[in-house]
Write a structure and sequence with these properties.
Glutamine Phosphoribosylpyrophosphate, subunit 1, domain 1, 5-stranded antiparallel β-sheet, 14 strands, globular
């Protein structure tokens, strides 16, 4: 019985840490008999959130897109030019949605292990391995979770691919995906316009259209958008001039 009480106290402390750090919507709780269960609590009012990100796997590469607005609390605009697409390596990048600090920490960790892999193996880390690494990072912190939702994509020997990883480490390979508060709007565009065998040049238009639709319909999404392309030639972000041309076509 003593061990049960001690274990219960430990889980109570973990639960309190989860509440304090992240404001997650569910946490571990323990009743008087030492039984562990998931309970709900209010999210932190100062968690940065509100975003729309998109990832599309193409026959000749990967397209990642995101808006540039970060909000805090209800819908206070905390920043208007956030970089939500983060380069990991020349063949690999990811989009971030959720808490800014948590997402940046995850990005730094993935970059570290990606560089270590390249030094040890003398070749870039496979996209699938990077996705599994990201999943392990999130899963290992499930009792004290990173409040972030990731789309990781890249090009390797198997071609272009994207994966989604949620805050508990669930990993899913997708043809296209969207995260953030504006994702329901973005999915409407993606579902109707995605086709197998899509080329990067066509996927850029679809991704931009999805983000712009979310900007129009979601208060947490706005200010601008970024688009990155990953192909066999490497990683590059579209210039302002290129994005202006896209806007004229949509």
């Amino acid at each position: 019985m003593t061990h049960v009480v001690i274990l219960g106290n430990i889980f109570k402390e973990v639960s309190n840490l989860i509440k304090t750090k992240t404001g997650a919507s569910r946490c571990l709780s323990v009743n008087n008999t030492g039984e562990v269960y998931l309970s709900n609590f209010q999210t932190s009012k100062m968690t940065y959130h509100g975003t729309t990100t998109v990832g599309i796997a193409c026959s000749d590469g990967v397209v990642l897109a995101a808006d540039t607005r970060a909000i805090a609390g209800g819908y206070f605009i905390a920043h208007k030019s956030v970089k939500k697409i983060q380069k990991i390596a020349d063949h690999l990048a990811l989009t971030i949605a959720g808490g800014v600090a948590d997402a940046q920490n995850v990005v730094d960790t993935i970059r570290h292990y990606s560089n270590i892999y390249k030094l040890e193996k003398r070749k870039p880390i496979p996209v699938k391995s990077a996705a599994r690494l990201t999943s392990n990072i999130f899963f290992s912190a499930r009792f004290y979770p990173y409040m972030a939702d990731i789309i990781i994509g890249g090009v390797d020997e198997d071609g272009g691919s994207i994966f989604n990883i949620d805050l508990l480490g669930s990993l899913a390979k997708e043809k296209y995906y969207s995260t953030g508060s504006g994702s329901p709007v973005a999915f409407g565009i993606l579902d109707s316009e995605y086709k197998d065998g899509l080329l990067v040049k066509d996927a850029i238009q679809i991704a931009a259209k999805a983000i712009l639709a979310a900007i129009q319909r979601n208060a947490g999404t706005g200010d601008g958008f970024d688009i990155a392309v990953i192909s066999k030639e490497g990683y590059r972000e579209l210039s302002k001039e290129e994005k202006d041309v896209i806007l004229k076509k949509i």
